């Protein structure tokens, strides 16, 4: 799949590795930076979604999305584990669930871009645990790539996703240029999405970054060797 991601805000909190390890499959190990595990809340928007051999299809080519994720490894392979992915396009939610076995949910979402960038999301489905957010950030500083070996790079530069498909650990490569990131001032974070994934958010201000976006190729799932 080929797509473009825009207006990404990365918000991260430190969380005990043991508490996250209990929430991921036993075949994966929580990846840490200097012994510290992290959970991320990442709202953004997407356009140009298509199979590499096809043009964008009206109704299927754009959406807003928010990920709740952590960082994992399987042997020497490192990547992302998604606790949830909320998206505004119900057709894409169904396709992603079917082809990538990812925990997508339908949501009503809004993005306003100006001097302050505002993200709003509310998961649909009255029987579900509330999963919402209202986030406001402002950008500061010049855009640049994360320094090699830094925490910034650890949190934003990930090129593989893991998922379970029919009891088998699988992965897919996610290929894109390195992000150009900027510092953000987090003006507002009201969210219940971490709690909806049984993650206790610490009473700390998040580490935040913003990226204007990248073009991305997402490859198909393949079983992981063990």
Please report the total strand number as a whole number.
13
Series of secondary-structure elements, N-terminal to C-terminal? EHEEEEHEEEHEEEHEE
Spans where pLDDT lies below 50 across 5 or more residues:
none
Oligomer: single chain
By DSSP (H or I, 4+ residues per run), the number of helices equals 4
Q: Give the overall average pLDDT.
A: 94
The main β sheet shows up as: 13 strands, mixed
Fraction in helix: 10-25%
Shape descriptor reads globular
> What share of the residues does DSSP label as strand, in percent?
over 45%
Structure notes:
The protein has 226 residues and is mainly beta. The chain is built from 4 helices and 13 strands. It has helices at residues 17-21, 90-100, 151-156, 193-196, and strands at 2-15, 29-30, 37-50, 63-74, 77-87, 104-112, 117-123, 132-144, 160-165, 168-175, 181-191, 207-218, 222-223. Strands 1, 2, 3, 4, 5, 6, 7, 8, 9, 10, 11, 12 and 13 form a 13-stranded mixed beta sheet that branches. Helix 2 (90-100) links the parallel strand 5 (77-87) and strand 6. The model has no long low-confidence stretch (mean pLDDT 94).
């Amino acid at each position: 799949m080929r797509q473009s991601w825009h207006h990404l805000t990365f918000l991260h909190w430190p969380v005990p590795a043991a508490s996250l390890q209990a929430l991921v499959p036993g075949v994966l190990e929580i990846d840490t930076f200097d012994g510290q595990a992290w959970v991320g809340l990442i709202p953004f928007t997407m356009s140009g979604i298509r199979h590499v051999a096809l043009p964008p299809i009206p109704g299927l080519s754009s959406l807003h999305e928010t990920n709740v994720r952590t960082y994992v490894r399987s042997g020497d392979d490192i990547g992302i584990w998604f606790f949830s992915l909320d998206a505004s396009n119900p057709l894409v939610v169904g396709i992603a669930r079917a082809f990538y076995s990812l925990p997508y949910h339908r949501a009503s979402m809004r993005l306003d871009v100006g001097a302050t960038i505002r993200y709003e999301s509310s998961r649909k489905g009255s029987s579900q645990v509330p999963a919402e957010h209202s986030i406001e950030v402002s950008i500061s500083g010049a855009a640049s790539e994360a320094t090699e070996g830094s925490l910034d790079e650890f949190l934003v530069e990930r090129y593989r996703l893991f998922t379970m498909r029919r009891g088998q650990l699988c992965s897919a490569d996610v290929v894109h240029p390195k992000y150009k990131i900027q510092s953000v001032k987090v003006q507002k974070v009201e969210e219940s999405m971490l709690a909806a994934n049984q993650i206790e958010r610490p009473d700390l201000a998040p580490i935040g970054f913003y990226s204007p976006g990248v073009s991305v190729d997402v490859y198909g799932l393949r079983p992981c060797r063990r």
